[in-house]
Each structure stands twice: as structure tokens, then as C-alpha cells.
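Exercise 7b. C-alpha cells:
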């Protein structure tokens, strides 16, 4: 997936990486070494945020070069990777698949984060659990080949519903279906719909019922969004429809900062200073809340956000607040009365 032919060794991917300190000459030298299959410091310093794929002006997809070497040099111990694969692999038969033109895939979050999948928004046939795990997590573990190995079965199981449209609760699933699988050459015989696109459709149809929230919020853009940046305008539209101002902060859009949860998986140093930096950036920009699209970001940033009294709001919950289904966090509600 890395395109050596496209790469002109400009070094931008590494010099603009938020997780390594490298100048243009070093970056070019590291890229050359990695293209020759050799180890370079980037292999160890990369936290797998996918930003370089978005940054590269030549669409050379440099993350996949690094990912291949992370695997070659066993960035994560093979038994840890194997245990994770075993945890998510599914070899059984699919039972009781819903039959509908539109089905939502909840990934593996119905069990762990079911409170985020509540209300009328989610009132549609759903699939989820291990058979519908999208495997993007594995490329966060220096095991992109395992992600690739299982990608086709993931697509096939969703296709087995016969749905024309699959609404993705999780950004990673959308990234797999709309970004990664087509690059692997896997046909996707249905339309993947990102949660934000679905929310725009849902809220627009109920525009007269919406209560504008009138708050300023920071957006925590997940790493997987780097793989499908074309859907970003839907996020802005959801904010607009909910009456939430997306604050202009340093770590947003192409400069988004990974929530750093992956540092735990990669056995790197303590992610806490990065998480605090992220939250501080939001509050410095005047945010009264931080809106997250990925449940993992919410878990990762929870502690530092609490310390700063910055509520974390899931994107779907922001829509539910505007629909009047659930309330704004208590202190923000008081301020708005
Ligand atoms: S992968 Fe892209 S950004 Fe990186 S050196 Fe090559 S052309 Fe430049
Ligand atoms: S994936 Fe992220 S951390 Fe890794 S090199 Fe690219 S920008 Fe840096």
C-alpha cells in the first residue's frame, strides 16, 4: 500500500509528525533506509496515528511503509499480537442476521459502551460483536498484516445482511469500509455511511424540533479519520445543526492530536502528558466541552478532562441533546439557562 514510485523523499511525513523530532535531511535518510527494508528510528517512535498518510502530498501512504517495518522488527511482541487476534477472531456461523436495506454496525461497542448507543437515533436493525470487528486496531499494534488478513471476512459478513447501506457507529469501521478495504482491492458491495453523515440526515429531517445547544466545543478527531478525510464536512454540519461552535484550536483537523491511548498498546512512555496537552489546548481555545467520535478517545481523555472540568460528549449524544432526548452536562446546562 506504500507507493515507492510516488515518494519524492520530501520528508514532510516525518518532519510534520507530532510524535518525532526530525529535520528534513534526517527524514529523507530515514525514508530511504525504510524503503530498503532497514530499521530507522521512525519505526519505534511512530504511534500509528495515520497522520502521515493524510499529510503526504504525493499520496504515497507512508504509514504503511512504517507499519510493515513495525511488524518486521516486532514493535509489539508476537504473542501479544497473537493473543489480540485470538480475542477477536470469529469462526462460527452467523445467526439471526437482520434483513433491511439499512443496517447499523456497532462494532464491538454494544457491550463495552452500550450507553453511547441509546435512543431513537439507533432505532434500526443492528449487527455487532466479534463477527463485525473491523480489525483496524491491529494496525495500531504493529500488525497491519493481521488487519489485512481479516478485512475481507469483515466486509463479507456485513454484505451477508443484504443491506444496501451500512451505518457505521465507529469511525474505524467506516475507515475500513470506505478507505482501507478498497485499497486492499476488496470490493464493498454496499454503501458505508459514516455516523456523522447519518446524524446530518437524521437531524436535518427533524430540524424544527432541534434545540440549539449554544455551547463552544473542541472536537477530538480520531486517528481513523485520517483514512477518510473526505467525510469531515459532515462533522461540521452536525455541529452546526446542534448549535455548537467548533472552537478553532491547535489540535484539530489536519493537526489533530491522537488521544495517545495506543501508547499503552505499544509499550511506550506515559500518555498522560499528551492527553493533558490535548485537553489544555481545548480549554485554552475556549471550549466548554470536548466532542468525541471514538469511544476509545473518551476513555483515554477522561481523567485529564475531568481534572479540567471539561465534559466529554460523544458525537451521537450531542445530537441527542439537540433532540432533547438527553440533557447537556449539568454545569453547562445551568450556564445556558
Ligand atoms: S511519503 Fe510522502 S511525505 Fe513522506 S517523504 Fe515520501 S512523498 Fe514526502
Ligand atoms: S502514523 Fe502518525 S506517529 Fe506514525 S509516522 Fe505517521 S504521523 Fe507519525
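Sequence design result:
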Amino acid at each position: 500500500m506504500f507507493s515507492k514510485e510516488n515518494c519524492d523523499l520530501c520528508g514532510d511525513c516525518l518532519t510534520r509528525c507530532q510524535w518525532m523530532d526530525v529535520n528534513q535531511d534526517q527524514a529523507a535518510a530515514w525514508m530511504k533506509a525504510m524503503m530498503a527494508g532497514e530499521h530507522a528510528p521512525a519505526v519505534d517512535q511512530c504511534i500509528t496515528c495515520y497522520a502521515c498518510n493524510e499529510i503526504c502530498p504525493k499520496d504515497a501512504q507512508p504509514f504503511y511503509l512504517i507499519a510493515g517495518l513495525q511488524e518486521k522488527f516486532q514493535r509489539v511482541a508476537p504473542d501479544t499480537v497473537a493473543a489480540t487476534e485470538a480475542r477477536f477472531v470469529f469462526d462460527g456461523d452467523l445467526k439471526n442476521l437482520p434483513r433491511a436495506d439499512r443496517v447499523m454496525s456497532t462494532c464491538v461497542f454494544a457491550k463495552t459502551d452500550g450507553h453511547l448507543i441509546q435512543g431513537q437515533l439507533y432505532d434500526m436493525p443492528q449487527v455487532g460483536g466479534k463477527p463485525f470487528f473491523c480489525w483496524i486496531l491491529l494496525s495500531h499494534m504493529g500488525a497491519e498484516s493481521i488487519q489485512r488478513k481479516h478485512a475481507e471476512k469483515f466486509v463479507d459478513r456485513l454484505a451477508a445482511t443484504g443491506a444496501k447501506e451500512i451505518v457505521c457507529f465507529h469511525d474505524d469501521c467506516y475507515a475500513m469500509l470506505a478507505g482501507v478495504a478498497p485499497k486492499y482491492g476488496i470490493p464493498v458491495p454496499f454503501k458505508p455511511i459514516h455516523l456523522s453523515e447519518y446524524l446530518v440526515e437524521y437531524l436535518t429531517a427533524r430540524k424544527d424540533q432541534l434545540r440549539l445547544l449554544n455551547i463552544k466545543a473542541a472536537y477530538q478527531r480520531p486517528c481513523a479519520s485520517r483514512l477518510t478525510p473526505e467525510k469531515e464536512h459532515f462533522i461540521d454540519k452536525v455541529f452546526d445543526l446542534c448549535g455548537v461552535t467548533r472552537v478553532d484550536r491547535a489540535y484539530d483537523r489536519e493537526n489533530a492530536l491522537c488521544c495517545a491511548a495506543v501508547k499503552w498498546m505499544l509499550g511506550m512512555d506515559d500518555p498522560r502528558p499528551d492527553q493533558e496537552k490535548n485537553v489544555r489546548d481545548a480549554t485554552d481555545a475556549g471550549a466548554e466541552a470536548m466532542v468525541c467520535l471514538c469511544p476509545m478517545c473518551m476513555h483515554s481523555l477522561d481523567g485529564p478532562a475531568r481534572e479540567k472540568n471539561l465534559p466529554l460528549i460523544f458525537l451521537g449524544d450531542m445530537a441527542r441533546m439537540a433532540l432533547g432526548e438527553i440533557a447537556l452536562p449539568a454545569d453547562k446546562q445551568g450556564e445556558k439557562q
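Instructor comment: Residues 80-193 form a domain with the Rossmann fold fold (CATH 3.40.50). Strands lie at 102-105, 126-127, 165-168, 191-194, 215-220, 244-246, 289-292, 312-314.
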